[in-house]
């Protein structure tokens, strides 16, 4: 493993949309990388104007990432290297970035509903790593016991439950397209319950969402290898099974993950009806970022 200060941040990014709805960033200090993150914006499933929706989601995701850059850079400069940020301070930085992104969105798009986005974030805090996650974007940390996945319990198994419903509808005689329309209608309805006691919490237009993020502190002295990615890239592991999680993690750090991305895009294009490999969208934005913290 390269020394902490010399290790580069490596990223692989691609989108088939007009504007990418994933965003990512990092904070570098004198001793190396101090924080890294991925934001995955969500296009409304029932959007009437996909072009406008794409512009709005991309704007919010990249604004959120930009304000995270500002907030984390300031916070990490103020913290002594022996202590680092606390979990409460990190959640406060996330909420301030969300608030500023929402204000900027409102200034540009008026009364349009604020989009939503996941966030997977890792910060070096002295001898520890703070892993903060809301939503279903993967966050992996290499430890002496192997790669640890930090999850948001709200979202565990959610997509698989939806796909199981699709399989049941198919078994009942519906066509693949009709079954997808039914389950996606249900998904659109569930998204309208987001950030309420009856739904899931996600970063968007509600100031309470950051309090529902999953925070985990791991005792991992530097250097430690980490990876954050959007669920569009995780498809290489599941459901397409092109590589293992460990292989994808290593390839991100080696700068060779583009081969897996190309294979994934080929596999997605070969199954546009989503019948051979069931999934909620034919393709998705792909972002993977590897760093040594």
From TrEMBL:
Domain spans labelled PPM-type phosphatase:
20-250
Q: SUPFAM superfamilies from the entry? A: PP2C-like
Superkingdom as given in the UniProt entry: Bacteria
**InterPro entries in the record, alphabetically?**
PPM-type-like_dom_sf, PPM-type_phosphatase-like_dom
Q: Which Pfam families match?
A: PP2C_2
**Mind telling me what this protein is named?**
PPM-type phosphatase domain-containing protein
